[in-house]
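ENTRY TYPE: protein
WANTED: fold as tokens:
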Amino acid sequence: MGASQSKGKAAVISNSKKPALNLPIAGATTQSSFNPPNQKYLNILISYGHSSRATAAAAIDALRYRLQITRDCSITLQCLITVHHIIKHGSFLIQDQLSMYPSTGGRNLSNCRDHSSPLKRKLSSWVRWYALYLEHLLSTSRILGFFLCSTSSIVDKDRDEERVSSLTHPDLLKELDSLVSLLEEICKRPDFLHIDGNKLVDGVMGLVGEDYLSIINQVLFRVKEMSQRMSGLCFDESVDFVCVLKRMEVCKEKLFAVCTRKKDFIESLWVLISETKDGLMMKIKSKSCNFFNLFMPFLCQ
């Protein structure tokens, strides 16, 4: 172990009153590695969520501190991947502790620039994007009322559809808007081809690809529900719904590259979006030809 790596790990461990809680974090985030965190250490960290609230809080605090003190972009990505694993696989106890902190651990990662090597300069752009994506993921989860993409918070399909069907039009549009914003954030990822084969980036995109299918599923529930309510939507709600669907269509080509699984399922969503948008635009036109003509150039962009 190099001197700088030893110093970094010592700083993490010395920060906590319970040093043992920091060991899996130090093991998962190693300066000499361009690999994702070791699954063994991730499992240990996630297991703290099945203990006490104090233990879960101490583990998250140690992870946050590790993210704060490092300026190495590979360690930062390892920390963010660890955050993502907690969102996806942690118990509610440790997820709840995580939700109290920004996924960036208090650092402004939008300015992350690691110039120590050409590879790390490229990885810095992934840090900037991934941190913002995780912030969007947590924000959307707060709006939905559960941790989106979490295996420990999988909502029964029938109960989920029942919950969605009970929402008001504005609440449905708010949730749909947040989900589409998350898809738009996925589309902003850096150019994958310039860093193809890097295991850290592969690890990030593997997790994001899994999220994508969960997000699409939640979008499908809400688009179906809103399309069934089409006749009851007021003029402004119809226009807002069309705009959200149009934003989805703008994302279509970029999203195809994120995940190649369940192609038939995903294609059915795009068909539904196209048909629903066409129906809404006909409804808007029938309600107010003058208003429709005013906004037609914007809606058809």
About this structure: Residues 206 and 231 are 40 Å apart (CA to CA). The chain has two domains: 34-155, 156-290. The mean pLDDT is 83.
